[in-house]
Amino acid sequence: MSDEKPPQLVDYFVVAGLAEGSRALEEEQQPRPARPGEPITDVAVIIRSQGEEVPQGFTCIETSTSGHPVDLNAGLLNNPQMFLCYKRGRDKPPLIELGVHYEGKDRPKPGYQILDTTPYSRSANLASGSPGHQRTFLTFRRAAEPPGHHTLGVTDICLVMPSKGESTPHTFCRVDKNLNTSMWGPALFLCYKIAVAKDNTLVYEAGLLSRYPEQDSESFPLPESVPVFCLPMGATIESWPVGTKYPLPVFSTFVLTGASGDKVYGAAIQFHEAFPRERLSEAQALRLGLLSVVDRRPVPGRSLHTRKSICVLSHWPFFDVFRKFLMFIYRYSISGPHVLPLETHISHFMHNVPFPSPQRPRILVQMSPYDSLLLCRPVSSPLPLSGASFLTLLQNLGPDNAVALLVAVLTEQKLLIHSLRPDVLTSVGEALVAMIFPLRWQCPYIPLCPLALADVLCAPVPFIVGIHSSYFDLYEPPRDVIFVDLDTNTIFQSEERKLLSPRALPRRPCKVLLASLHSLSQQLDELLSAPGEEEPPELVLSDAEAAGARRAQLELEARAAFLRFMACALRGYRSFLRPIAPAPAPAGRDAGSLFALQGFLRSRERAYQRFYGQLLRTQLFTQFIEDCSFASDREPCLEFFDTCVDKVQVDLEKPEDTPLMELDDPRGGEHTVFITPPEQPAGPDGAEPPARYRYDGFPTLRPELLEPPRDPLVAQLCQARSSAPSSPAPRRTKQEMKVAQRVAQKSSAVPELWARCLLGHCYGLWFLYLPTQVRAAPAKLRALQLAYDVLRKMEQHKVVLPDEVCYRILMQLCGQYGEPVLSVRVLLEMKRAGIVPNTVTYGYYNKAVLESKWPAGTQGGRLRWAKLRNVVLGAAQFRQPLRQRQRQRAAGDPPGDRAPPAPRPPLHRQTTWAGRSLRDPVPAPRLVKSGSLSFPARTEAGAAREGPGEPPLLPVTPTPPPPPHRPRGPPGSADGSLSDIATDDSGGDEGPGAGGSGGAGGGGPGGVTPRRGLAAKLQQLLSPGKRPPRPSEPPREPGGRRGSEHRDGDPPTSRRSPAGTLLRPRERPESTASESSVSLGSELDLSDASGGSSGAPKASGEPCTDGGAGTEPPGLEVLLSSCSRCPGCAALVFDEELMAGWTSDDSNLNTSCPFCSRSFVPFLSIEIRDLRRPPSPPPVPPSPQGPVLSDRRRCLELDGTPETPGTPGLCNGCAETPPSWRRERVAFAYLSPLVLRKELESLVENEGGELLARPELVDKHPIIYWNLLWFFQRLALPSQLPLLLLGSQHAPPDPQPPEPSRVRVRLLWDVLSPDPESCPPLYVIWRLHSNIPPRLHPWGPPAPPFSLPFLEALLSHVGLNEVHKAIGLFLETLADPKAPRTLHRSIYRELLFLTLAALGREHTDIAAFDRRYRSALAKLGGAPGRDELRRRRAQPPSARASECRRCFGAPPEC
Question: How many CA atoms does the CB half-sphere of 576 hold within 13 Å?
């Protein structure tokens, strides 16, 4: 995997302004009539009936907008003729707002002046014609002094009469108070326009002055149009009166959208600086008023200025941070002198300020001793990243207009947003695009449109464009556009374009949306109008943070309100998606073939058909259907929307109690990275260097002063790299993680659900590994079919899957390897399981089906020949009985003496092209018995007697027919463990005896019978009433004679023992060895309630998962055990108890002790045995392979023979030789499947999926490796993980390897390394008394009370179903002074293991043992007390532990 660069905070720094060759903008288009050059500074009311004239310099308004005469007192009797006048100028601050004041009804507004007299000192009451009417006056508010050249002010005033059909002119503000308060006359309203009144200005297209870096990035080259967006109204040359105050810099933002839909955010500030007069031509000087028109003499008292802009481009909308940085750079350029150049600060910010990461969420940048900024990690949200501000939308338009714009955007109208504040345009434009989520705007979108690109307003397609309101002073806008004035909170609709009424929207969702927006608008007003009281300085910062948090919460609620409406409007859309099941047609991507449009339309209410009809015809909806149908980068967002659709209830008239969105803490912690200012160079003798950098204007950047990155390690502070492209969707979406966490929390309270939850995460781990497994498999289709069979069995066993990753990965692999038919089967399996695929899974499915090559639809010649072959062979099968009957008649045999006809071979239909004859036996796949961790191999006759079993969970790869059975050699059970048959197929498919149950005519497992006396007692205890023939005795011949006589010394047949209740109902022992309970080489069969497994390791005869084949011994043998010691009470906690103690937190590594409830981290103990060194030749045993267990007399003779000191011990008649192999023991943390899955996803995301197939995984990530190996072996899931050990540091290379080595993995239930000072457990003492050498060395000496009669008494009580007596006897023995003070294993565990060692695992029902034990403990609860029993660790495993063992099964060895 190639290293990817971390996210970069800033991509480019740009300086824009008037460049050489910039073209003039106003000369190319036909402008409107000249705009006013001066603002309105005064208003007055005159009474013409009293002889008052229009004052000098004032203009009187005598008509309305359509030419009707306007008299302010037209509705009154004996009315004085009153008119409104205004005056323009720059001698005083302009008016910025007008109003109407009703005396006695309205309170005077602060900052407003009431116009109560005329210029001639008469009353300016507009209702002065009648004394009984309410007094009405005009009011105005003036701008603060001193006025600037670019100060906003009132530039036009007009009066409108709605009764005459007049409406408010575009870009005008209307005072919603009637000037005519009488009952007579038409209503009259005052309107005014606010704009920047300026003249003597030349406008040019902005150009690029300088940039950094100078070279384009490969991933994102600098767009050529960036200077135009930095100065959207153009680069200007302006002539000001001398002494005019410089205007403050104007901050603006814009968005650039690439061809792929990626957004780049720009933040810029515009400012003015002096412009040299020498660069002007005579024509330019004339237009700027610098020369007189007649004699062309210079006009004194004028200064010349130009407008520039500095800008940063980024993929992240950190607008507040960028504004502070740009303002600091601007102030730095106009101040000075400085020690460091301006370029140093620019390069320092771009290179040395990292992007905030989850580990370092806060970046504090100190730019100077007085300037700093705080950069916080973006809010983690499933919604697309956006610079939207819904609060700005509500503040400027209100709730009703916001809903009206929602209708306009959903129906794809032409929207033109304009304002005098350029920074508001981007926030509102982004909000309009974000409010329709999950739909995505597909038409032109320019939230801040430059004047040079204003031609887009004439485009014949829908658009959303934001523009400065001064555009309307220069040009005539199109007539088919809907205008949205953010300064006046109004929407202007032309007759050609009429919006749908909000009533066309679904009623209840729209009502809830409006109610939510009104509530948020009221809260926003309260927040903005909070009185600013004097507070101590230490509280100012905390109040600012609280206000920011409150705004963020309101922003989230506003966005959630629109999200809820869209979820209600599109509810049920997924049921109308049409999956591509057959081979796709050329028009497979058409929306009509992907979505049932008419069916969706008919599912909506009739009153809203018009709205939905227009919505379905938009490009918005068409692209939405394509995004839902095919894999895209919007899958996490769409999957989150699906969860919102499931949460909402359309019929409610209030929002749901459960929030759709939650505000994540963007900081994630308090760790803050401090970025210091650039270092100043040291002067001579350590003195401060001189300040020599001073600027008259913003300079052109000098490349030699731009410094390289100061710290190359800054990149490590950035975010983690994105997902590796080679891994097929391995990572869950954030929404799936949250859902899985909630499911785990709910399941943790129910034992059965908790066990299934852990099991589901284990299978999720294997499917994350599946791409690696399929890449390594020689037959890809076979590996994919195996994964599909796993899915089917998981559904049959009702495994709870936390997400759809299993199905998703298999679907994408089907597409990757060209198996669309299998992908369709996976989708059908999902539907059969009741799982509706989410957007992510659905997209991968359609992609696999659409892009893969389908098999030919026509039947080829080979298929026809195969059919003909089947017909011919079928006819031959039917003719065989006729031929047999003819041969019998020809032989003349009497009917009564005929032998039954031989069974005819079944007719198998050919389904492959392997060319195999139908008469050839079909190798059936070996299946692990479901519900058991391991199951011994059985003969076909035994399988037929048992009848159909539970369907297996995991099909194992078919193997060739097994070789003839040979008795297993001494290594089979030399260590005498509870179950010494490992999860190994080195021996191939062995006979029944290899499993420990002893088939007829085969050898038994490599175990040793106990001593004669104990064996005889157990034989008498366990012998059933009717015993099948022993394996040592050949089957009876037709005449009834046995092959050999009965041997001496065999115990006689006894009555059926009550211990039979613990035996398997259909798995009675069939050999003397089994009856004498010495089949210690057999595996534990946990197929019943306690030991059932949804997926179990194979029996010893099954093929191994270590990647080897044949019967060669393994090169490495790995022993794994999860049994851990509690650090609090020193008790041993076994695997199922560890699982029960895990929590639902996917970051918690601890489990809890079932005895002392202490939390601790469990460990996986690993022992690696390197068997590749050839062992020394062993001594010649008494028999070439040693006596088998069926040879009872010889086994007992060997057991009774005392060993000679100095001679090696015998195990099953074979000499025990010291091991000649190397052994290594390690231990690593044992992780919960929830924790392990999170870590595995992070590993695959950061380092790629290829790491799972390399030996570096073992050395670099041992915890993940060993935990994966443990769980995969527990569930018998195939993997290549064992083979990675051969290339790791745990397996030094063999200097002369004869052939590729194999790896055998064995899972142990008990500890791997015992404490030599502790007393051995009872089952080990039993084996010591039975002369069976223990597997682990060394064990301490057994305690005197634990004698052979004591063990026999315990087994007798257990065998007679008197478990309470066994517990009581055990407790009494522990009270003996010679007994060990503490036992590391519980009493339950001691009795269970002893029973398994004596009876054999395949003959023990652990579930029945648990029931008997709980019943016995209930009987003993009143004698010593429950607390005393718990203190002495006599309690059984908890319900969660039992369920975990039932689902996972017990490890096959102890």
Answer: 18
β-strand pairing of 362-368 with 672-675 = parallel
Count of CB atoms situated within 10 Å of the CB of 299: 13
DSSP annotation of 451 reads G
Structure tokens at 83: 């008119």
Contacts of 268 (CB under 8 A, 6+ apart): 16, 229, 230, 231, 251, 252, 253, 254, 309, 310, 311, 312, 326
Length in residues, the chain: 1454
β-pair partners for 158: 191
Q: How far is CA 1127 from CA 946, 1156, 1310, in A?
A: 46, 10, 17
- Phi, psi (5° rounding) for residue 503? -70, -15
Q: Which residues contact 132 (CB under 8 A, 6 or more apart)?
A: none
User: Which of 292-301, 375-384, 869-878, 1196-1205 has the least mean pLDDT?
Assistant: 1196-1205
Highest mean pLDDT: which range of 143-152, 254-263, 437-446: 437-446
- Helix or strand holding residue 893 (H, E): none
Instruction: Name the packing angle between helices 609-616 and 390-410 (round to 10°).
Output: 90
Is a pLDDT exceeding 90 seen at residue 1001?
Answer: no
User: What is the DSSP-derived secondary structure letter of residue 972?
Assistant: G
Enter the DSSP assignment of 748.
Answer: T
DSSP three-state, residue 252: strand
Query: Rounded CA gap, 717 and 358, in Å?
Result: 9
Closest listed residue to residue 1014, CA positions, set 1362, 1351, 668, 1338 = 1351
Contact call for residues 343 and 708 (beta carbons, < 8 A) = no
Note the pLDDT of residue 916. Answer: 40
Helical (H) or strand (E) element with 1196: helix 1192-1200
Q: Which of 650-664, 1019-1033, 1285-1299, 1396-1410 shows the highest mean pLDDT? A: 1396-1410
Of the candidate ranges 360-364, 715-719, 1091-1095, the one whose mean pLDDT is the lowest:
1091-1095
Between 251-255, 781-785, 924-928, 1363-1367, the lowest mean confidence (pLDDT) is in 924-928
User: CA-based Rg of the chain, rounded to a whole angstrom?
Assistant: 44
Whether residue 1238 contacts residue 1268, with contact meaning beta carbons closer than 8 Å, is answered with no
H-assigned helices in 34-77: none
Span 1191-1221, pLDDT tens digits = 333 333 433 333 333 333 333 333 344 455 6
Q: What per-residue confidence (pLDDT) applies to 392?
A: 92
pLDDT of residue 93: 85
Q: For residue 317, what are its two tokens?
A: 């909308």
Is 55 within 8 Å of 119 (Cβ atoms)? yes
pLDDT in tens, 457-513: 888 899 999 998 888 877 788 888 899 989 888 888 876 667 788 888 999 999 999
Give the model's pLDDT for residue 856: 64
Tokens of residue 161, six digits: 């009469």
Phi, psi (rounded to 5 degrees) for 452: -70, -20
What SS3 class is residue 100? strand
> In the sheet that 445-446 helps form, which strands lie side by side, from edge to edge?
445-446, 463-468, 414-419, 482-485, 490-492
Helix, coil or strand: residue 1101: coil
Which residues fall within 8 angstroms of residue 1148, CB to CB, at 6 or more apart? 1142, 1232, 1235
DSSP 291: B
DSSP character string of 1402-1454? GG--HHHHHHHHHHHHHHHTTTT-HHHHHHTT-PPPPHHHHHHHHHH---SB-
Distance from chain centroid for Cα 81:
74
Range list of β-strands (E), 578-702: 672-675
Mean pLDDT score across all residues of the chain: 74
Q: What is the dihedral of CA 720, 724, 730, 731, to 10 degrees?
A: 20
CA-CA distance, 887 to 662, in Å (whole number)? 85
Task: Spell out the SS3 assignment of 855-887.
Answer: CCCCCCHHHHHHHHHHHHHHHHHHHHHHHHHHH
